[in-house]
Design a protein that fits this description.
single chain, 691 residues, Immunoglobulin-like, 3 domains, ten-stranded mixed sheet, six-stranded antiparallel sheet
Length: 691
Amino acid sequence: MGSRSWETDRWSRIRIFSGASGCRPTPHRTARAVKKIFQAMLLLLILSASAIQVPGLGAFQAEAQEPLVRRVNAPYFGQQDVRPEESAVFWFGQVNSRDNLANVRVGYNDNELYVRVAVFDRLLWYDTTPAAADLASWDSVSLYLDLDGTTRTALSEDAYWFVGQLTWWEEREAYQAAYRWDGAAWRLFSGAYSTSAGWRGNAPNDQINDKGWVLTYQIPFASLGLSSAPVEGTKWRMFLSVHDRDDASGTNISDTIWPPEGWTGDPSMWGELSFGLPIYQAPTISPSGTVVIRQGLNGAQVIDGAVGGGGTCAEGIDIWNALGDTNYAGATDFNIQNQADVADWPCYSRAYLTFPLDDIPPGKVILSAKLILHQYGNSGGGSWGDPEPSWIQVLTVSDAWQESNLTLNNAPLAAENFGGSWVDPLASFPGWPGVEREWDVSLPVAQAYQQGGPLRLALYSADMAYHSGKYFVSSDTEDWNAVGRPTLEVVWGEATPTGTFVDVPMDYWAYDYIETLYQSDYVAGCSANPPMYCPERTLSRAESSVFILRGAYGAIADPPHAPPSQPTFEDVDSGYWGYGWIESLWRDGYTAGCSDTPPLYCPSRQHTRAEGSVFFLRIKNGVDYQPPPASGLFADADPDAWYAGWVEAAYLEGLLPPCSEGPPMRFCPEDPLDRAWAAYMMIQAKNLPMQ
């Protein structure tokens, strides 16, 4: 997009497929996200030519409250460029003649983190003579990252601050700056990164209404000291602040922040940036029942609402003084739409749905769940150009809302995103109830059910193309079209008596071993909500470092040794979540890594049965233990192989049985070691009493 404006201010028009009366949609509910929290103070103190102190931004509360951790699960694009239209999407702020609402897209590939912020802003102002210390005094976006990802409350050297300002035609270098916390102040950071900016409307730096602007960050992982992209499942902390200026004098305007509960000085109150999309691992039990939940079916009360400009792009509504507070309760359909051109933000629309889960019997296990919507039309077509497919995403919201007063300016923010489904455009009106579209919502349903329900969802897209809107039947449609209403279909199973983890029933072969480790504080599982252990998931080498050190030291919460300032392994940087554990494992002599030249640990590689034999034998016998020479006990373990003596010793000392009794007997040394067998080996190595 660069730093130039788009040439003309155009609107995305729509065509509604007709063929039956009532095809044309009524205006849809418009929504408003949570009120901006007070602006904190501006950049205050220049400590030196390269050091800046920044006060915290956010709300001051009379009483301490447990903060809600909002999570963004960033999709991974491998070696390809990040595709914005498939990136995670979320929103924050309000839109009116003074306040700003922001749409954010986040994704990553092997090389970089991508963050795109589109700001709906009536008046655009930027500094024609910029200075790094003053960038946030004009229209700009600050992005804060904490690579540690824990809940620590103080900034550390893992914290970075990037700030980029709006520009018209100027080169970007003077309009961006990056800092790293040095323990006392933000110091200018020399790592490579890039920003790009674009705007839409009349022109910046005047009092004529504009539409908004966009800032995109592309931050190479190498610039953050990482040798590769974070391993899937890695968690960082992230905070965003949209700075606004509406006149030449700089009249004070509150910053718009995400999460609204946070402030810059406390990373524990930032949002969570998780790399990769979550996957629900259902317990391996047989289905026992299915529940279908739909408005009016068996008395269910399902509410939905849509916010934004709807299928008419807010036609006839004052976008700066009315759209943010417009409500469309009772609409029989809703639109889901987004696009790259911020001039078309009055067309952007998202939907909210709330499903009661009371019809699912208590004490069951969720095996799968799907959301079903019926699509009857879409924008585009004819003179407006061909419509595009949309990757429509599912997100959860934590706050209750009412259809009767839902607006763009009070609609709940997203709590977490959970992937999505492709929705193709329709060539013509398909007839009622429309074309069935499905989304996998197993994980959010399992979480909501575990918490006592209901299930609260938001649906939105990160589309970039024009004419991307998709029209769906709502719960308010008349009874003759009841089958077209949003529907939740949940498959459940009988909960085999379990202890701590819902996926480890009492009749599971490793139940006693896993439960003993948990009760002894050696493990915490793979999921807190619902509580799961993922017994058949392969242990990664990074996870094994925690597992082994807890076996050696007991139920410790942190690595036993302070991590060094310089990494031992080239593929495990100080910002990696397992850095301290892996360094402690190496220092104690449990590992030499997976490569000498260059020194590598291979943290994301699967842990094998042979490697597990080494680790657990050393837990049992000490780090200096060496096994006796191999005798050829296993047909698949060549006596000359590096692991031959280790696997024979592991078998003879009762740490791990063979994978096949034979004859001939086999050990399967290169097979992955799952979490259930790791629990078994830990119990044997530590000789822990079974609970």
